[in-house]
């Protein structure tokens, strides 16, 4: 039996604009985790995938599955086996479990796929680099999310803060001094595919306005990177607020996210913004060891389903 693990992620700055070539900054979140377990089984069983949290078992057949739920899992398993040159198909059972909440901007799909790739590579004793893991996982992200930028698979496969520009080699960067953020779950699922599709429709209808908003977001990301590298994280708050306003202007915030942002700021957070695709999912707020408890309480009182405090280091 072999295991593979992967963390969740949040985007600190730059979501949506990153789909249009601007930079974004993302960090791994280790308090949530996906895991995959690979076991050899009798040869007549073929490949079996057990998705414990989703409550289904899928047997991989000779033709690609038409089962929507099983398709991304089947795809990542078959693509990884092909990449590892494992032929003929082995008889294995892959059991997947995850504490990364689904459809909340924490990268659940990329985390599950990454855990599967790592578990399969370990099972067949083949070394695989983070870049190779990321490229394999991107192929299933397309099934989940349409035309994703690739930031989720990159930050999860590299497991360190990344400054990401679509199509460019990843740039891990140094956090000058660790700082803390609160991650508040609205409890509202959000489909990245739908929200990214809506932004695309709006961009097509009014390219000048949207390009200008993306440029302003890109400039925030560049400033944020310098601040993080210098260890001056107390200066990040206003940039988070500004980024949130620009995301509102893109049409991807919601009443609940705006309420949480307001509550976090009032309770002492340095700044707050939605994180990920928006409409639902998560809000992040800049906290310190001194403000964390009050901000967490305020977020819960304002309707957050769950709040995590995570260190960025
Ligand atoms: C989703 O986590 C982030 C988006 O920017 C989409 C993407 O980058 O593919 C909204």
Architecture overview:
The chain is an alpha+beta fold. Helices cover 41% and strands 24% of the residues. The protein has nine helices and eleven strands. Strands 1, 2, 3, 4, 5, 6 and 7 form a seven-stranded mixed sheet that branches. A four-stranded antiparallel sheet has the order 9-10-8-11. The longest helix is centred in the C-terminal third of the chain and has 24 residues. The radius of gyration is 20 Å and the shape is globular. The model has no long low-confidence stretch (mean pLDDT 95).
- SS-based structural class? alpha+beta
Spell out which ligands are present.
(R)-mevalonate
- The average pLDDT is 95
Gyration radius, in Å: 20 Å
Which descriptors would you attach to this protein?
single chain, alpha+beta, four-stranded antiparallel sheet, 9 helices, 11 strands, globular
Describe this structure in a few short sentences:
By secondary structure, the chain is α+β, with helices and mostly antiparallel strands. Helix content is 41%, strand content 24%.
Topology, please?
Layout: E1 2-13, E2 24-40, E3 47-51, E4 56-59, H1 71-83, E5 92-98, H2 108-123, H3 130-145, H4 151-158, E6 162-164, E7 171-172, E8 179-185, H5 192-205, H6 207-230, H7 236-250, H8 255-266, E9 272-275, E10 282-287, H9 292-301, E11 306-312
Parallel strand pairs: 3-5
Antiparallel strand pairs: 1-2, 2-5, 2-6, 3-4, 6-7, 8-10, 8-11, 9-10
Helix pairs in contact: 1-2, 1-3, 2-3, 3-4, 5-6, 6-7, 8-9
Bound molecules: (R)-mevalonate.
Residues 11, 15-16, 18-19, 105, 145, 148-149, 151-152, 192, 196, 276-277 line the site of (R)-mevalonate.
